[in-house]
Amino acid sequence: MYSLLTRDRFIPEYLTGQTVFNESSFNTSSGSGGLPPVDPRTTEDCLFLDVVVPKTIFNNAGQGSGAPVLVWIYGGGYTAGSKAGSGNPAGLIKRSTNKMATGVIYVSLNYRLGAFGFSSGPTLQADGDANAGLLDQRFALEWVQKHIAKFGGDPSRVTVFGESAGGGSIMHQITAYGGNNGPVPFSQAVPQSPGFIPLVSNQQQEQVLNDFLELANVSTVEEARDLSFAQLVIANTIQVGLAPYGNFIYGPTVDGDFAPATPGESLLHGNFAKDVKVMVGHNAQEVSTLRVLYTERMPLIDVQGTTVHLALHSEQHSLQTTNSDYCADSPSMARGHEVYHEYPLPGRLRRQPSPRLHRPDRPCCGIDL
After folding, report:
1. Rounded-to-integer distance, Cα 130 and Cα 255, Å
2. CA within 20 to 30 Å of 45's CA: 108, 174, 297, 309, which one?
3. pLDDT digits (tens, 9 = 90+) for 221-266
4. Looking at residue 290, what is its pLDDT?
5. What are the Cα distances from residue 230, in Å, to 40, 129, 136, 269?
6. pLDDT of residue 337
7. Which of 123-127's residues contact partners 24+ apart within 8 Å by CB, and which partners?
8. 192 has which bridge partners?
9. What are the tens digits of pLDDT across the range 127-159?
């Protein structure tokens, strides 16, 4: 099976000239051999956000109506990414001040990924929350509504934008609760190439959960909660890494609560926030490393060990890895800077004050500008 691990390990080798692979090249079948190393800074305690404010706007906080706000939700297949992984917003902010304009406030947020953010199914929901990653996003957006005026922002002019899984997340935010939970915490949305794989079947969701528990060498969610974070993240990394090529295992699911139906079905029946202005687009060349690339031949992998000739699209793309500010699931993680709130976070695998799948119950600290 052509897996994500195959992509991460062998596409870079192909782009540097190697075209022939054999069985020993694909040592990903047992244990954690062949898995990318887990950054020691990886943590589920990753729910931070960054607030970047031009000095003029900050100094005028409380005077007048406030500046418009852009909130970035990153993509990454709901299994990787970070609030800082899309580059420095300085250029965007500078351009927002062209022609004597006031400028904008830029906010980027983290949300939990993989098994930590998107475990679901009846077994989990009997004593926990599905779509915790979407709840993380919602909590951050509500935080912005409550606090952005202190930075000089206008809470009535918040625009969310995001690409791929970020765009798909925005679709879920617009259709959250079937549009029946009051106003959404933003007024405009720019989903770019919104993407997600619908998981509507309870059987599918249970299978994903059971596969994760098996990799963690436990039988129940309660037993998983007693494992160390290191054990959980290894199980998650194996599960996501061995996903079929083009699939990421995890993502938003129909949970009967935050997501009562798929966004498409909710939009079809008018069950969405109707007071949001939306601009939708699709970005070119954004998934070069996520799709099956080819010229004359598709990449072939023979599990019996015959030689593999890997042919890719003739247009070669640079592959880069970002090692900062990642949220739990991605093999490369790091710290965040500013946190959402000092209160318990939303979305957890058990209905108790702790927001995390793992046990450490400590509150977040305050914002550090």
Report:
1. 6
2. 174
3. 999 999 999 899 999 999 998 888 778 899 999 999 999 999 999 9
4. 54
5. 9, 22, 22, 43
6. 29
7. 123/206, 123/209, 123/221, 124/205, 124/209, 124/221, 124/349, 125/255, 125/256, 127/221, 127/349, 127/350, 127/351
8. 163, 281
9. 999 999 999 999 999 999 999 999 999 999 999
Q: By C-alpha distance, which of 295, 88, 104 is closest to 190?
A: 104
Q: Provide the 10 A C-beta neighbour count for residue 173.
A: 25
Q: What is the pLDDT of residue 226?
A: 96
In sequence order, the 6+-apart residues with CB closer than 8 A to the CB of 315 are 288
Predicted local distance difference test score (pLDDT) of residue 180: 94
Q: Quickly list DSSP for 254-286.
A: --SSS-SS-HHHHHHTT-S-TT-EE--B--TT-
DSSP letter (8 states) at residue 37: P
Fold entry, domain 4-309 = Rossmann fold (3.40.50)
Which residues are identified as catalytic? Answer: 164, 286
Give kind and range of the element (H or E) at residue 160.
Answer: strand 153-163
Q: DSSP string covering 214-257, please?
A: HHTT-SSHHHHHTS-HHHHHHHHHHHHHTSBTT--S---B--SS
Domain boundaries, the chain: 4-309
Measured CA to CA, the distance from residue 1 to residue 245 in angstroms comes to 8
Distance CA 92, CA 63 (A): 24
Residue 277, beta-bridge partner list: 188
Could you state, in chain order, the average pLDDT of each consecutive group of 10 residues for the chain (369 residues)? Answer: 50 63 52 59 84 95 93 94 89 90 94 96 95 97 97 97 96 97 96 90 95 96 94 92 85 96 96 96 72 38 34 29 41 30 36 34 28
Distance between the two ends of the chain, CA-based, in angstroms?
Answer: 47
- Residue 352's CB is within 10 A of a number of other CB atoms, namely 12
Q: Kindly state the tokens that stand for 112.
A: 């939990």
Residue reference for tokens 């601009």: 279
Q: How far apart are CA 182 and CA 173, in angstroms?
A: 12
